[in-house]
Design a protein that fits this description.
The protein is of the alpha/beta class. Helices cover 47% and strands 12% of the residues. The protein has 15 helices and 9 strands.
Length: 333
């Protein structure tokens, strides 16, 4: 893989500014923090409205120059200079991950998933790391998410949804964790389909698993994460991963969710609030309170018995989502 095919000059600048990748190894890097998403959004606006125009134009500038041109406090300008000063070390780290079959691109690069950028807008991750064929990220997909601990009925539902997604020619998008995620992705693989696994932690460790690496090399699985390839698990990381799953998907299906707690609940509630995509929730007489409350909050119910009779799942979802939109338009404000 050629790094320049994934990262433009602007993209490399954005990586240096916004990612913790390679930061701890850089001299003096331990006490300088990469820009948060909100900080980058503001800096990007300032760059576009200045004489610099592009992120790459920040390179080679002194803190005084950046402060004057971008109207930044000197402390923030110095922080930017320090982050950009690690470019040499970062280049070595990039060669290392690319040589092991991983890649990286940023929100300003052409290879960044267009649907993710357009759906999440200013909330889209600044940097994503991945492994596998990037073109699979341009395929329409259905997110299938849920709790790690599900009963046999939930497992069957997740697998059937994954199978029907593949039958419709779409990609299964999930989180790669055990439970709901794994069952839906396994069903997609068994049906000779494609899947995207959005990880909350170590891309590097996941890719080392022989079965996973084989699927990646076969072009059937893409792994993706908004965090550095060696990042460990954190609750915040899992929450940030969820929005990427929804942002990549045309529709989402929640198989099971706890009430008012857990990553599945938080991700679904945020997606409903922001209207990232239509969300369907598994429903039956015995379904938990979390699923019921998501439906009360505006998600569309997907009855287990009804799923069995669904032919082309995307047409069915479009019809259901369209009827809900029309119904909402008729309701008084």
């Amino acid at each position: 893989m050629n790094i320049s095919d994934y990262l433009s000059d602007d993209g490399q600048t954005m990586l240096e500014l916004c990612s913790a990748f390679g930061l701890k190894e850089a001299a003096g890097g331990e006490d300088v923090q990469p820009l948060k998403l909100s900080e980058w959004n503001e800096l990007e606006r300032q760059i576009r409205s200045s004489s610099m125009k592009t992120p790459a134009a920040l390179r080679g500038r002194t803190a005084d120059e950046l402060g004057k041109v971008l109207a930044l406090p000197l402390e923030e300008a110095e922080r930017i200079v320090r982050l950009l000063d690690r470019s040499g070390r970062l280049a070595l780290e990039l060669e290392n991950i690319f040589s092991r079959g991983m890649w990286v691109c940023t929100r300003v690069d052409d290879g960044y998933p267009a649907h993710l950028r357009e759906t999440l807008k200013q909330h889209a991750p600044t940097v994503i790391f991945g492994a596998g064929e990037r073109h699979l990220l341009a395929r329409p997909g259905i997110a299938i998410v849920g709790s790690r601990h599900i009963d046999e009925t939930g497992i069957a539902f997740a697998r059937e949804t994954g199978r029907k997604t593949v039958e419709a020619g779409l990609t299964v998008v999930s989180g790669g964790a055990r439970g709901t995620d794994r069952h839906s992705m396994d069903a997609a693989m068994e049906a000779e389909g494609k899947a995207v696994g959005v990880l909350a932690d170590s891309l590097e460790a996941t890719l080392r698993k022989p079965d996973v690496r084989e699927l990646v090399l076969d072009g059937r699985l893409v792994l993706l994460t908004p965090y550095a390839p060696t990042a460990g698990f954190s609750v915040g990381g899992a929450m940030g991963r969820n929005k990427v799953i929804y942002g990549l998907s045309e529709f989402a299906v929640v198989v099971s969710s706890e009430l008012n707690t857990g990553g599945t609940w938080a991700g679904a509630v945020e997606a409903l609030r922001t209207d990232w995509c239509p969300i369907f929730v598994r429903f039956n007489a015995d379904v938990g309170q979390g699923n019921r409350e998501l439906i009360n909050k505006g998600a569309l119910s997907l009855d287990e018995a009804e799923l069995e009779g669904v032919g082309e799942i995307t047409d069915w979802m479009k019809a259901r989502a369209g009827s809900r939109l029309k119904q909402a338009e008729l309701l008084p404000a």
